[in-house]
Amino acid sequence: MVLVDNHAGKDGAEDGNLVDFRGNPVDKSRTGGWLAAGLILGTELSERVCVMGISMNLVTYLVGDLHLPSSNSANIVTNFMGTLNLLGLLGGFLADAKLGRYLTVAIFASIAAVGVTLLTLATSIPGMKPPECNPRKGGHCIEASGQQLALLYTALYILALGGGGIKSNVSGFGSDQFDSSDPKENKSMIYFFNRFYFCISLGSLFAVTVLVYLQDNVGRAWGYGISAATMVLGVAVLIGGTTLYRFKKPQGSPLTIIWRVLLLAWRKRKLTYPSDPGFLNEYHNAKVPHTHMLRCLDKAAILDDSAAANEDSKSPWIVSTVTEVEEVKMVLKLIPIWSTCILFWTVYSQMNTFTIEQATFMNRKVGNFAVPAGSLSVFLFISILLFTSINERVIVRIARKITHNTQGITSLQRVGIGLLLSIVGMVASALVEKRRREHAIHHKFNISAFWLVPQFFIVGAGEAFAYVGQLEFFIREAPEGMKSMSTGLFLSTLSMGYFVSSLLVSLVQKATKGRWLKSNLNKGKLDLFYWLLAVLGVINFLIFIAFSMKHQYKVQKQNLSSIEDSAEELGNWKDLTLDNKEKKLEADEKVEA
């Protein structure tokens, strides 16, 4: 997955938020820039090599070496990836509230290095695996015991903790190395995000080709050992550049504001609403207009008599402001769309679980070379890169001419296209699996693994639309004061998608008594599971359409600071900003009157 925080570097050095490693105001000639950003990109490259090299081929190890059932193996992978993305919220919270991005990335990268090192040990110690066998030839296989799995689980979830902390902060820390108020550095920041995406893609391609080949043909210890060494090197490079970085001071997490508003609204639930909303705390100074939506939350901004007598009556833990309440309302307004984005990532998770398992039952030879099953996911990443480029260079330009909209297609339209493609991807997966099983059973013939390429390409194309659409939607629709919530909401859809996959697999196993999802796919009915996902996708898409039609996009207003930035570029900063400030003062006086 790609996670880019486009708003991470918007606070320039001029507001005093950026300091050097000694805590002094930054010296642009000695800190930041491409050297510092390049070292940070190295850390992200290392994380990508580790996580993708493990997740895209882990299911083959669980089924083939540890002899676990396919359904259990798929759940282990999806739970691991779901936890990793969920813990990204923890990493983001710690960075915003206390530690800052540098310390958070350094600490969690070190944790990730420990996790992948333990995973290397778990897969290389002979006593951590059951005796070898071949179930396809009728051999009786003994599943790995709880003691043998203990070190594996410990390693995976330590890695999930470390990877989540890196994922939620590394792009923001990289963008902090550029001052957005400096035209030259602002341009470099744009290139940084392009190169950040390139590093993610490069790391993923290296992982699913070179590392997966080493895991399958040389040994898991070698494959995971290289991942561990890469992560340790990434940590060393990050720490080695400490004196070169610009550090952004922690300014508090928006999660704290959300929790505080909900808590105060609950505590004051028995209070009566004021006769006029103007009596709410900071009503006339609100940065966001008051609305009547979710009116129950307004009680958090009521200053009751007992609190008013307290000298700390305006403490944020006693009464919220109207601005805080309205921002929480705006976040809650996104929940319906958020809920319909989850199933896409449930579909996506099949690409590194059951689809990889399908490949092990197919002919993967190209001449005399056997392509590792996990390496077939390279077509997924090729599709993502290809359709991301086509989307921006072709589809958006054509759509702009048709719709006369500068966006070309809206963020929700992108998400809708992604959801449709995920449905088509599951239909293709079901048809291919039925053909594969029929040939294996009736003709004793394994069809080519390249029959899986269409489903990789279709789901990859879906991600190119859904990923960009979801991230753009949450960024644009989130409150101005809670922009970091956009990445949090996005990460949570990924996390929930993987967890829903685990839940569905467990429910299907119980409902079908294990007849659909068997370790030997030739004896199961995996195609019916894919059809189930396709049907759920259709239902989810219809619900998404209903929510989308009711959703009202937030009005994108250009604030005073952005006006000043534009005026400065035109050379008319003084005249324009003074004029706008005077207009703002006049407007404020009218509101007060």
Automatic annotation (TrEMBL):
Give its localization.
Membrane
Q: State which residue ranges cross the membrane.
A: 76-95, 102-125, 145-166, 196-215, 221-245, 330-349, 369-390, 411-432, 452-475, 487-508, 528-547
The record's section on InterPro entries has: MFS_trans_sf (IPR036259), POT_fam (IPR000109)
Write down what this protein is called: Nitrate transporter
What is the organism field in this record? Solanum tuberosum
Membrane topology reported for the UniProt record: Multi-pass membrane protein
**Keywords (A to Z) from UniProt:** Membrane, Transmembrane, Transmembrane helix
Source organism, top-level taxon: Eukaryota
Kindly indicate whether the keyword Metal-binding belongs to this entry.
no
Instruction: Return the similarity comment.
Output: Belongs to the major facilitator superfamily. Phosphate:H(+) symporter (TC 2.A.1.9) family.
Chief subcellular location: membrane
